[in-house]
Amino acid sequence: MIDFSELWGFTLIVGLLTLTPGLDTALILRTAALGHRRCAWGVVLGIQTGTLTWGLLTSLGITALLTASHFAYTLLRWAGAAYLVWMGARMLWAARRRPAAVGSPGPGDDDADRAQAGAAVAPTSSRLRSNRGYTLRGGWRQGALTNLLNPKVGAFYVAVLPQFVPAGASQLAMGVLLSLIHVVLGVLWSFLLIGCARMLRDYLRRDSARCMLDRVAGTVIGAFGLRLALSD
């Protein structure tokens, strides 16, 4: 029988965790703010796939083996840190390259007609090149790797999830139910984040704004990677 007091307690904990600004928030906001809505939802689905996977593995007792093994935990921690630092470095590199394209010399006054024609074509071609990697599948892969390569998520589930499984209840069924609550809260919060990013899309179309966004997101994500690498 389901104990609703346990469900409400778990909902409160993961709700506060979801609302706390962190790696997932930075990744979703940055992707949505750049105008890649489909990719942003791919990131959301990937993150929630990772959350559900951690919950399932914890319910089966597999995650406990990971946290009990110092070697396995360290290996996963370093893999996750390397991935986050690499992702942050890519964003910082994109921010560094963007101003070069903006500040390139334009045509003279005598070529005004050709300049107007080129202005319509150049942004389109550059936008097509930049959108190549921003697909639903690419976003899902990015979100899932970010979540699954973070052993602290597994450690959190090992520490918290069993406390909310009532005595006599099915460990697997209750674990999956609690994980789904976390997933639903995460999706609802993502709706709000992506909606806010869309409200700012006119401002974020500017190259200077996109450059600043890449710098902030790259620094935040890279810092998370370094923090994960240096943590015990």
Describe it.
It is a single chain. The protein is an all-alpha fold. The protein has a domain at 4-18 and 41-82 and 133-199. The chain is 81% helix and 0% strand. It contains eleven helices and no strands. The protein has helices at residues 4-19, 23-33, 37-59, 62-68, 70-102, 112-130, 136-148, 151-160, 171-199, 201-204, 207-230. The longest helix has 33 residues, at 70-102. The chain is globular, with a radius of gyration of 21 Å. The two termini are 39 Å apart.
Give the helices and strands as they follow along the chain.
HHHHHHHHHHH
Task: Output the number of helix runs.
Answer: 11
Largest sheet: none
**Radius of gyration, Cα only, in angstroms?**
21 Å
Uncertain residue ranges? 100-130
Shape: globular
Please give the share of residues in helix: over 70%
Q: Give the N-terminus to C-terminus distance in angstroms.
A: 39 Å
Would you tell me the structural class of the helices and strands? mainly alpha
Mean pLDDT: 78
- E-strand count: 0
Strand content: under 5%
